[in-house]
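Researcher: Structure for this, please.
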Amino acid sequence: MDKKQKFDYEEIKKKTLEQLRSGKSLFGKDGAFAPLLKDILEAALEGEMESHLDEEERSSGNRKNGKTSKKLRTADGTIDLETPRDRAASFDPQIVKKRETILAESLESKIIGLYGHGMSFRDISAHIKEMYDTEISAATLSAITDKVIPLVKEWQNRPLESLYCIVWLDAMFYKVKEEGRVINRCVYNILGINAEGRKDLLGMYVSESEGANFWLGVLSHLQQRGVADILIACIDNLKGFAEAIATIYPATEVQTCVVHQIRNSIKYVASKDQKAFMADLKPVYQATSKDEAEIELVDLEEKWGKKYPVVIDSWKRNWDKLSTYFQYSAAIRKLIYTTNTIEGFHRQVRKITKTKGAFPSDISLLKLIYLATQNIQKKWTQPLQNWGLTVSQLSIKFGDRLRLKI
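Model: Predicted structure, C-alpha cell format:
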C-alpha cells in the first residue's frame, strides 16, 4: 500500500461489513464512511486549486502557499478540513467556500427538516450533537432556518389559478414577542379547491387581529395574483366579512359556518336549557330544504324566542348567509356548511406549533407555518373523493363560470 495514502481501506472495508451486520449507521461520528468524506473533500479542494493556478496565474507569480485548517460540520460529524492556499489569496473554492463552516447540502437540509416538524432549536442542537457529534448554537440554527424566508415571500406572492370552486377563509391565533412584550397575532389562511378537485393553501397572512378590513386586503391580494372568480366562499360569522368578499368577488356565493353559529348561540343559553334547545335547533340546520328549515326556525322562535331573543335574532339576521348550502346536493352541503376543512388543516399545523409558547418575531412564526404547510401539502396529491360528481353538479349550478374551465 502507498505510504502516502491516508486511510487503510482494508480496515474501512472490514469496519463497514461489521456495521452493516450489526445494523449500525455507516455515517455519523463513528461510521465507517465518515473518514472518507474528509479525504474526498480535500481531494476536491486540491483539484480546484490546480485548476485555479492556470498558466496565467503562475506567470504572475502565484503559487501554492500551504494550507489552512478549519472545522467543518457535516451530517457525518465535525471534520478538520485542510484547505489549500495560494500566495495571491485569490483562490475561491466552491466545494467548501471560504468562511463556510457547515456543509449546506447535508446538514442544513436536515436542520430545516427537523425545524419544520416542530423541534425547538434546543432539541435540534441536542439531536445534532447526539447523531453527528457536532455543536451548533441557537444563533447558527436561526441563521440556517432564515434561509427559508425568501422561499416564504416567493410562495406568498406566487401566481394562482383564475378560478377556485370552493374557498375556506379562517384564522389562527398565536403569541409573538415584540419590544419585550408578548402580543397576539392572527394568521389568516385561505384554503381552496380548484376545478380539478385539488386542495391548495392559497395564502397566509399575519395581522394583529382578525377583522373584515384586513380580509378585504387579503382578497385584493388574491385578485392581484390571478384569482378572477370564486364560486363559493365558506367563512365564520365575523361582522362585515361577507360584505368584504362581495366587494372583490360580487358573484361569489357566501356560506357562513353553521357550526360557528351554533357555538356562538349556545354561549347565551342557560346550561339547564342547552340540551333541550339543541334538540329543537337541530331540525333547523339538518332540514332537507330551505323551506323546511324556515318552518323549523319559526317553531324554534315560538318556543324559545321570549327567553333567548338575542339568539333567535342572530339566526334570523344571518339567515341568508347561513342557509346558502340548502340549494346544493348533500355532497356539496357537507363540504360547505362548516369551515371544518380549513379547521382540519389548522389542527395539523398546531401539532407542529404547539411546542412554541411565544414566537420571537412574525417572520419566525411564518417560517414554521410555511414549513409545516409544505409537509402537509405533500399528502394533497389526489382530488377530493367523488369530485367528478361534485364538479358536474357545480357546473350545472354555475354554468359558464365553471364549464369553460373544466
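Researcher: Any notable elements?
Model: The beta strands are 64-74, 77-86, 163-178, 181-193, 199-207, 229-235, 253-256. The longest strand covers residues 163-178.
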